[in-house]
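Hypothesis: this fold can be encoded by more than one sequence.
Test: take the structure tokens below, design a sequence, compare later.
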């Protein structure tokens, strides 16, 4: 098969990790007799420098024509002082929205080989954990009304959280279906003791749980969830939550796996193309030094094989290669605990060697 993939490398380490991933994909295709055509488009700061806008129309059009999209990361010090609408991050929200990607899957699992890299004690992570966070991605406070107005204390800024029944129901269904394919446990995380949107969220989730009686359903307040993730991560199977809470909790969940440099994500919608990206950012402090961890991006490509192309064979090939390299003791700086590490390009080579 021939697959057309749009590459949105973006800024900072985005370029290095996407280049690494392309090499891994090329080798995977060579082995399976498939072919990838890659086309790069501008996004984020790189697009601002080149075109004056973080998300040029040409990028959206190019993505829409392709079978799938691989994104690196956006943002950097250089663009930090631009106004909200002009910031590189705006492009991320823009592309998610333009492609209708309302589902964000963020798996966080502990690799046995990386147990030492987890900041949690052995007695907590000894049994391992494997959490799938289902984050709503095109609604909530990220996309609500915002601006400035005169308030009680003078000028104030505001952002609004809003969720419709439709938005909650469609992400809820995805979460229940995801749980059905895993260990059949789903925890919905909200702030229903304070927020009206959360109360509606909880009501809809409860209704859905009536349809999915095989799934052991629970709900949890987000402050408690933040605590439970570090107290006993093994209790979670699938988590479903809003855009904002999912953003925060997925960073927390990534940290206990040892490094945010390990976590992949898939952003899906009802139509192709879907988008795959590591959950980490552009890390401008280490950009260009060849010390980033390419694994999150490489595992994102594995998710692409599985979810966009229905190619579990290729996904497993990539995932097994990553497992093997970690088991063989190879580490990038972020996951090394003895000061010994290999560079981004070397890690890429190691993975390609065992593919
Ligand atoms: C993420 C990022 C983005 C988000 C930012 C960069 C807009 O933190 O993908 O988690 O908040 O969604
Ligand atoms: Mg985030």
């Amino acid at each position: 098969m021939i697959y057309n993939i749009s590459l949105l490398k973006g800024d900072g380490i985005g370029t290095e990790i996407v280049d690494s991933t392309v090499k891994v994909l090329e080798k995977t295709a060579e082995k399976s007799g498939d072919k990838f055509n890659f086309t790069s488009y501008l996004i984020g700061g790189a697009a601002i420098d080149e075109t004056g806008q973080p998300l040029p129309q040409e990028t959206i059009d190019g993505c829409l024509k392709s079978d799938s999209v691989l994104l690196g990361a956006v943002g950097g010090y250089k663009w930090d002082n631009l106004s909200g609408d002009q910031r590189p991050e705006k492009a991320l929200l823009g592309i998610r929205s333009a492609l209708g990607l309302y589902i964000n899957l963020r798996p966080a699992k502990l690799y046995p080989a990386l147990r030492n890299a987890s900041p949690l004690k052995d007695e907590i992570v000894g049994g391992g954990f494997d959490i799938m966070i289902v984050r709503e991605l095109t609604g909530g406070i990220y996309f609500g009304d915002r601006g400035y107005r005169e308030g009680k204390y003078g000028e104030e800024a505001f952002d609004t959280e809003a969720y419709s029944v439709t938005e909650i129901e469609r992400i809820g269904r995805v979460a229940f279906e995801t749980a059905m394919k895993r260990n059949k446990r789903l925890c919905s995380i909200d702030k229903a003791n304070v927020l009206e949107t959360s109360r509606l969220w909880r009501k809809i989730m409860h209704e859905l749980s009536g349809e999915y009686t095989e799934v052991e359903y629970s709900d949890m307040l987000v402050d408690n969830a933040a605590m439970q993730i570090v107290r006993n991560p093994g209790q979670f199977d699938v988590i479903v939550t809003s855009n904002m809470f999912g953003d925060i909790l997925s960073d927390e969940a990534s940290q206990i796996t040892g490094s945010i440099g390990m976590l992949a994500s898939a952003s899906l919608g009802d139509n192709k193309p879907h988008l795959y990206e590591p959950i980490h950012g552009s890390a401008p402090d280490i950009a260009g030094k060849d010390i980033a961890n390419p694994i999150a991006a490489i595992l994102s490509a594995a998710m692409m094989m599985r979810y966009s192309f229905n190619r579990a064979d290729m996904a497993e090939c990539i995932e097994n290669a990553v497992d093997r390299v970690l088991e063989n003791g190879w580490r990038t700086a972020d996951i090394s605990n003895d000061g010994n590490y290999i560079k981004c390009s070397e890690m890429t080579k190691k993975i390609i060697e065992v593919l």
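The chain has a mean pLDDT of 96. The domain at 1-106+262-355 is CATH 3.40.718.10 (Isopropylmalate Dehydrogenase).
Hypothesis status: open.
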